[in-house]
């Protein structure tokens, strides 16, 4: 009997899922719809059925992040900074792209509910990191004290780690984050999903599925000094 091929890892599966989502051609926009404000909802309404099925599969994998991520895009809360060096170097453009996502938390009172969007979180796709607390909890989940003494956690470290992204390197969901395995101590037996939050997933959809969600990001070209100001919390 021929040997059965091993199923792809979770990281590879999500990468292929996003690549398929990006490759689906969208129908042309009607002239009547061109004057309306583009939102995530009406973009998905005119999307073919295959797009909805792929998004449903993504929702099954990330049930707590997909809908909040789409809500962030719908509210135009994602900003992409392209840091331009002096003199500018177009070949380094992809290396110096930083995302900032404003908070969509709500404040309720007896009479009204308002959305507070003053806090911004920094997202870096290559390093696979978000500065929000939810990502920290996802990256470092609590471990039962009864298991820590008997169940080791192993980290699968490749022989060579890329020091910086390159144009020839294929993108992978999870960026430069390492694969971890818990439960058996054998990294080959499990393939957990990389940590994720709604801010990070929203930026992934913008970056990897531009035909669908590229219009929902605010683009800015900044110099190094202005990028430092954003990192210090002085952005818009």
Descriptive keywords:
236 residues, 9 helices
Overview of this structure, please?
The chain is of the alpha+beta class and 236 residues long. The protein has a domain at 10-126 and 197-231. 32% of the residues lie in helices and 17% in strands. It has helices at residues 10-23, 40-45, 49-61, 66-74, 133-139, 145-148, 198-208, 210-213, 224-231, and strands spanning 78-83, 97-102, 105-108, 113-116, 120-124, 129-130, 153-156, 179-182, 217-222. A five-stranded mixed β-sheet has the order 6-5-2-1-9. A hairpin with a 4-residue loop joins strand 3 (105-108) and strand 4. The longest helix is centred in the first third of the chain and has 14 residues, at 10-23. The model is unreliable at 147-155, 164-168 and 181-190 (pLDDT under 50).
Major sheet: order of its strands? 6-5-2-1-9
CA-based gyration radius: 20 Å
**What's the main sheet like?**
5 strands, mixed
According to DSSP, the number of beta strands is: 9
Protein name: SWIM-type domain-containing protein
């Amino acid at each position: 009997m021929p040997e059965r091929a091993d199923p792809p890892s979770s990281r590879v599966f999500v990468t292929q899922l996003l690549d398929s989502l990006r490759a689906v051609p969208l129908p042309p926009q009607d002239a009547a719809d061109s004057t309306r404000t583009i939102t995530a909802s009406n973009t998905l309404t005119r999307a073919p059925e295959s797009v909805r099925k792929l998004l449903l599969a993504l929702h099954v994998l990330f049930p707590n992040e997909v809908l909040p991520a789409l809500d962030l895009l719908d509210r135009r809360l994602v900003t992409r900074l392209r840091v331009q060096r002096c003199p500018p170097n177009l070949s380094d453009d992809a290396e110096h792209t930083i995302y900032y996502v404003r908070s969509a938390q709500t404040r309720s009172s007896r009479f009204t509910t308002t959305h507070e969007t003053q806090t911004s979180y920094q997202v870096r796709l290559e390093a696979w990191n978000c500065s929000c607390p939810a990502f920290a909890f996802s990256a470092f989940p609590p471990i039962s004290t009864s298991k820590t003494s008997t169940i080791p956690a192993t980290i699968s470290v490749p022989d060579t780690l890329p020091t910086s992204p390159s144009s020839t390197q294929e993108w992978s969901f999870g960026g430069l984050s390492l694969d971890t395995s818990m439960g058996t101590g054998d990294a080959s037996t499990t393939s957990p999903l990389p940590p994720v939050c709604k801010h990070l997933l929203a930026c992934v959809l913008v970056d990897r599925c531009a035909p669908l969600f590229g219009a929902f990001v605010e683009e800015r070209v900044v110099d190094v000094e202005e990028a430092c100001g954003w990192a210090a919390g002085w952005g818009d």
